[in-house]
Amino acid sequence: MRYFILNKPYEVLTQFTDEAGRATLKDFVSVPNIYPVGRLDYDSEGMVLLTDDKTLQHRLSDPQFKVEKTYWVQVEGIPTDEALTRLRLGVVIKGTKTSPAKAQLLEEEPQVWERSTPIRFRKNIPTSWLEIKISQGMNRQVRRMTAAVGYPTLRLIRPAIGQLTLGRLQPGEYRELNPEEVTQLKVIAAKAPKSTTGKRTGTFGTKGKSSGKKPGSKGGFRKQIN
């Protein structure tokens, strides 16, 4: 069995073929017969797991299991305590309430790559970064969650799944996991409890409150992924 992580760039499909000719994993990963674990939206960036281990793939991507994934989310405006509380308690998306999330403002911008296409922001409205950890996987869930509390997502990055992080991988780069990481991944999958609701499940960063600065106007981060 083989296990890899890829730092998926912006505007790349989490699949190996596309009839419309859009960029796919095939443009970056040359290893045959491996497949992505779950999905990451076309306009989102960050960690994608790839493997030929079908059992692990099922455990980590099936909605019946709760595996925590971490997202760094650049939003328009600076969310209030009330908005953060709503995210933590769950918000209603198309008639379905999301499971409780871990949500906090990042004190500083995480330090990562410049996006290939700069974000669009309004000069008179500051942006801020949130760390959101969820164990669901509803379609475009994080974006819909922040929009539901009044803070649209401008940029979305997934830097970790469980304790597994991107490290120093740049967009489009991938590497094979070492034996210790594979064991760690299997432990996560083995411990993941089944959901009793049957709802879809789908998640790194610092703790802290907003500094009140205007982060993200250049799409950059101050927090290092390591």
Shape: globular
Helix content: 10-25%
Q: What's the number of helices?
A: 4
Detail the poorly predicted runs: 195-226
Radius of gyration: 17 Å
- Based on secondary structure, the structural category is alpha+beta
CATH architecture: 2-Layer Sandwich
Give the strand content. Answer: 25-35%
Distance between the termini: 26 Å
Fourth-tier CATH superfamily name: Pseudouridine synthase
- State the CATH topology: Pseudouridine synthase
SSE run: EEEHEHEEEEEHEEEHE
Q: How many domains make up the 3D coordinates? A: 1
Taking the sheet with the most strands, its summary is: 9 strands, mixed
Task: Quickly name the level 1 CATH class.
Answer: Alpha Beta
- By DSSP, the count of extended strands is 13
If you average the pLDDT, what whole number results? 84
Secondary-structure blueprint:
Blueprint: E1 3-8, E2 35-36, E3 45-51, H1 54-61, E4 69-76, H2 81-89, E5 92-93, E6 96-97, E7 102-105, E8 110-111, E9 127-134, H3 141-148, E10 153-161, E11 164-165, E12 174-176, H4 179-191, E13 223-224
Parallel strand pairs: 3-10, 8-13
Antiparallel strand pairs: 1-3, 1-12, 2-3, 4-9, 4-10, 5-6, 7-9, 10-11
Q: How would you describe the overall organization of this protein?
A:
One of its GO terms (biological process) is RNA processing. GO terms for molecular function: catalytic activity, acting on RNA; pseudouridine synthase activity; RNA binding. InterPro entries: PsdUridine_s_RsuA/RluB/E/F_cat (IPR042092), PsdUridine_synth_cat_dom_sf (IPR020103), PsdUridine_synth_RsuA/RluA (IPR006145), PsdUridine_synth_RsuA/RluB/E/F (IPR000748), RsuA_PseudoU_synthase (IPR050343), TruA/RsuA/RluB/E/F_N (IPR020094). The chain has 226 residues and is an alpha+beta fold. The protein has one domain (3-224): 2-Layer Sandwich (Pseudouridine synthase), CATH 3.30.2350.10. Helix content is 17%, strand content 25%. It contains 4 helices and 13 strands. The strands form 3 sheets. Strands 1, 2, 3, 4, 7, 9, 10, 11 and 12 form a 9-stranded mixed β-sheet that branches. It has a two-stranded antiparallel sheet with strand order 5-6. Strands 8-13 form a two-stranded parallel ribbon. A hairpin with a 2-residue loop joins strand 10 and strand 11.
